[in-house]
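User: I'll paste a sequence; please echo it back and then give the predicted structure.

Assistant: Echoing your sequence first, then the prediction.
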Amino acid sequence: MMKLDTTIIEALSLDPNTTTVKTHGSSGFNATAKISTTLNDGTQKHLFMKTAHGQKAEVMFRGELASLNAIHAIVPSLCPAALYTGVSKEDGTAFLVTDFLDLSSSSSSSSGSSGGSSEEQQQQQQQQQHSGMSLAAKLAKLHTTPAPTPQGYTHPVFGFPETTCCGDTPQPNGYETSWANFYARNRLQAILEKCERNNGKDAEVRAMVEKVVEKVVPRLIGDEHLNGGKGVMPVVVHGDLWSGNKGRGRIGGKGAAVEDVVFDPSAVYGHSEYELGIMNMFGGFDGKGFWEEYHRICPMAEPVAEYGDRVRLYELYHHLNHFTIFGSSYRSGAVAIMKDLVRKYGD
């Protein structure tokens, strides 16, 4: 059994005599644990905790806390709420604590229990699993709700109040009134610079990214081009929604409904179609009727004929990010996308 840091006990007002913590699950960049505590009324409450060391972890956890809560504020059943992030006064460990997400319940909820007919058990299971909204509908609601207006602005803009991390890549999120400018500067140019720091100079990749920024970005996602010159509305997007960051489970644990859920976000106030880049890159969202249901609620931007190329432009960022983190095996995918987009829109 692990020892729970006193900083967390104090921050969350937990009773150390009725609180335990043990290793739970796994994460590519952090240690993870489950906190269990008994409340004054005798009920048990579970929380989820990530820990890591160093300033990068502090940045990552602040971004994830803000990301989870931005999503949760719009669609509470889509992800757990984040409760606290901070640094241990004992050893400097950074930590993030959220509501517990029981992903194992997606299978255990269908197991039989003693008592009751099979028909009653089936009805009970359906009631437990019925969320009222599919993953497609939840994402569409997220992507059609205007992002919050940041302090100092009179309307929603593109960016985010915290630096967020996609994988372990810190993403600059300074506010921009132009989506094209935000994507060019804070995603493509920023990841190119980090890629060169990690992997060394690459003249071909640099030249192509610069061409995409100069020609393709304004041509495909410029404010004067999208939606007949109306541009796009900033909405909260998850930011790292590949199939490994979604599932079915109970937020808060026992007694909650089994829901389609997402986790490990790196959110931004951006174009809804930006979300689709990494979803398209790795797949896993091709279930029966998923995209039909999603687009009934969240239509493609105009011009619809360029929708596929916009998604590929957004997918490009994730190829470059994977090239940055994991090395040259992802270089060819990035180059192929850039060559195709430059051929079509680079004149």
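The two ends are 63 Å apart (CA to CA). The mean pLDDT is 91.
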